[in-house]
Amino acid sequence: MDDKLSMRDHYDAKISRTTRAFGLGWGCGYRTLQSICSWIIANGPPKTASSGEVPNIPTIQQTLVEIKDKPERFFGSREWIGTLEAIYVIDTLYDVSCKVLHIARSDSIAKHADTLRDYFEQYGGLIMMGGDMDAASKGIAGIHVSVDQDVYLLVVDPHFVGRIKTKEELYTKEYVKWQKVEDFVDSSFYNLCLPMLKSRELAA
């Protein structure tokens, strides 16, 4: 069976925006988190009135400092964030819990296809994915299992810089692409953040 599932409802992809203080193209973890925050805002009631806006990088850093995950010097720094920091921010700002899916170096992403398929079927959200050897954060917006049981993930790369003229441009430049799981870095472990909030379409 040819099986393809992807996220539901819209979000504002934070792939072309960053502050001048941090530099263009920097902060993929922040921008993937911002994209997830946008999806959460669009699909669930924010925890507070102020959380109706997608948090900027200083707000994300300040949140991590306030919950004692990071030291004071982290605020205003160029230090990266990963999947675990994203989970802390989502929980603090929106009171939305996240499931952590850890894929060890010795493990296969394909072995977790059912978990990812169930997530998109039941929740329809945007997943954050990051690793160690493959340190670049990325959004996962869908899963496809071919008739030959080949597994592909729909990857949203937050490194795009500039203005998007057409959505086709994102595909031709491969900032949004279906990537076979064997093409991920097999020497890297991966942590995935799955927000446990149902899309409005699925919750209706």
Automatic annotation (TrEMBL):
Q: Which residues form the UFSP1/2/DUB catalytic domain?
A: 24-193
What GO molecular-function term can you cite, just one?
deUFMylase activity
Q: Which InterPro entries match?
A: UFSP1/2_DUB_cat
Keywords, A to Z? Hydrolase
Q: Which Pfam families match?
A: Peptidase_C78 (PF07910)
Task: Name the family.
Answer: Belongs to the peptidase C78 family.
Which protein are we looking at? UFSP1/2/DUB catalytic domain-containing protein
What organism is this sequence from? Anopheles melas
